[in-house]
Amino acid sequence: xxxxKATTRDLLIFLRAPKLTDNGGVIxxxxxxxxxxxxxxxxxxCIIVAAIALLLLPVMLAFDxxxxxxxxxxxxxxxxxxxxxxxxxxxxxxxxxxxxxLSGKPRLLIPLSGLILxxxxxxxxxxxxxxxASSITGAIMLSAIIIAVLIGTIVMWKRAAPSWFIRIFPIIxxxxxxxxxxxxxxxxxxxxxxxxxxxxxPQTIGGLIWGYARIRYGWWANIAMxxxxxxxxxxxxxxVLLTRPDLI
Length: 248
Fold this sequence. Notes:
Layout lengths: L1 H15 L17 H29 L3 E2 L1 H7 L3 H20 L7 H23 L6 H21 L7 H5 L1 H15 L4 E2 L3 H4 L4 H17 L1 H25 L5
Antiparallel strand pairs: 1-2
Helix pairs in contact: 1-2, 2-10, 2-11, 4-11, 5-6, 8-10, 10-11
């Protein structure tokens, strides 16, 4: 239990004042045995989420909260597809989008900026009704973005995190966790939209803990934790699908 306490204390110290060094590392003494510490961090993640789930169960029953249609369709897929999407592809894509760039290194910020620009352009075209009429223009602009991202990434490959990123890192760190949590509100359905918000708490907690793991141990740690969490979170349903598919 001493390692769990040390891991919890280390996490809380970081969350109170998230900081980066000039090379994108966390400012605090490194503890030995990263893989073992990561297991304790994962255990802490599971304990917190389990406690939140117990508190949310009455809310789910009171407001008739259920999975959204898209999530129901996802869990209606064959087991191998479910595992591939939820346990492998989903965590990798989400971690690349939300936390791969948290070190602040330009070679990671530039691709993120290109992705955001492309998403904004696509949304704008759809809102203006240009989606079909501007397919050639869209292809040209996408190609330009890809070329610019590649050139920028190569040129800035060895650059350290910019000073402005380090300065506002606490805001960036907490913002990524909050946004990550909020986008998961679409996983749920119910008559009262406000009642859905508490159900993004597990994902928000995940955004904080996995973000800490990204800075503390490296890019592989948050991806591994996210995969393990999704596997554990869906293991009950997978067991039912394998043993009693008639109940789904």
